[in-house]
Specification:
Layout (H helix, E strand, L loop, with lengths): L20 E3 L3 E3 L3 E3 L6 E3 L15 H16 L4 E3 L7 H11 L7 E6 L4 H15 L4 E6 L5 H13 L3 E7 L6 H10 L4 E5 L11 H8 L2 E5 L28 H10 L6 E2 L6 H8 L9 H13 L3
Parallel strand pairs: 5-6, 6-7, 7-8, 8-9, 9-10, 10-11
Antiparallel strand pairs: 1-2, 3-4
């Protein structure tokens, strides 16, 4: 069920802790991973989003560059890729890139259903598997809570039948938190996905503590606020004390702030550039900031002009 046809490794490989995995074919490092509350399966805390950045099907040059980006993601220890039918041709692009890879990656495939109606939802989910070239998804999420009651009923049945491993719901832009909170209280989902970053910290008040309490996996979207978190720091050097948590650039500063929260399972920065992917994946190794350092990071960012 959870295998890439012909050549991709199964997600059973993710049950092996991600410590001492080969990183970029040149060094052995301990990768930061989190155990999923629903199963204790471990996944790396840095995943990959695909909104806008992988909407590239039909452009040969763009497709070639996305293959390199995805290869770098896997080479540096990545596993979870997140997409949606809402994301233009991103599902096709992901499928193309996966088929081009020479070695079987440890893929954790996550996508969404984004349509109204049970029959249309089932058709859309099957089409997504076809476009990705997978037999099934590790995680299927109801995108922005569209017709959420209908799709969760379907997904509960699919999970019982072994057609999907985990089910979840998503929101973004800080919307629908009250509705999301009710679903988390109900015990209906294994995962939630929402926005949280060094600027938008509202989720730390209710959603993140509730996820810990209820044993729900958390995927964080918009970690860079579509790159706007960088606006305030473009002319600023990284503070010297960032070395205390093995941070070498601002991307890692922002990502480590997020994944150091104990409720966060994974965050999904999106990029179409190899150099940015390398920077992002650097947050997957080294030390993480402790609670007092996290407070210092937020206070320092808030103090900057802009």
């Amino acid at each position: 069920m959870f295998k890439r046809r012909e050549f991709l490794g199964s997600t059973a490989a993710l049950a092996i802790p991600f410590s001492a995995r080969l990183v970029h074919a040149s060094s052995i490092e301990t990768l930061i991973s989190r155990a999923l509350p629903a199963s204790r399966q471990c996944i790396p805390v840095i995943g990959m989003g695909s909104w806008l950045t992988f909407d590239a099907a039909g452009d040969r040059h763009a497709l070639g560059s996305r293959v390199k980006v995805l290869a770098e993601f896997f080479a540096r220890g990545g596993a979870l890729i997140d997409s949606s039918p809402m994301y233009g041709t991103s599902p096709q692009t992901i499928g193309h890139c996966l088929s081009e890879l020479a070695h079987p990656p440890a893929l954790f495939a996550a996508t969404k259903v984004w349509i109204r109606g049970r029959w249309l939802g089932e058709r859309q989910m099957k089409k997504s598997a076809y476009l990705w070239g997978v037999d099934g998804f590790d995680l299927m999420q109801v995108h922005n809570l569209v017709d959420v009651a209908t799709h969760l009923e379907t997904l509960k049945e699919w999970k019982a039948e072994g057609r999907v491993k985990y089910i979840g719901v998503t929101t973004s832009h800080g919307r629908r938190h009250a509705e999301l909170e009710k679903l988390m209280q109900s015990g209906a989902v294994d995962f939630v996905q929402f926005s949280y970053n060094i600027v938008d910290r509202e989720a730390s008040l209710r959603l993140l503590p509730l996820a810990l309490e209820r044993g729900i996996g958390v995927i964080i979207n918009r970690p860079f606020r579509r790159s706007r978190v960088f606006d305030r720091v473009r002319a600023e050097p990284l503070p010297e004390w960032a070395k205390e948590f093995d941070c070498t650039n601002w991307a890692q500063y922002f990502l480590k702030f997020i994944v150091s929260h104990p409720a966060v399972t994974c965050t999904i920065p999106a990029t179409s550039r190899v150099d940015h992917m390398i920077e992002n994946m650097g947050a997957l190794v080294g030390r993480l900031p402790n609670p007092s350092m996290r407070a210092r990071m937020a206070k320092y960012y808030d103090s900057l002009p802009g």
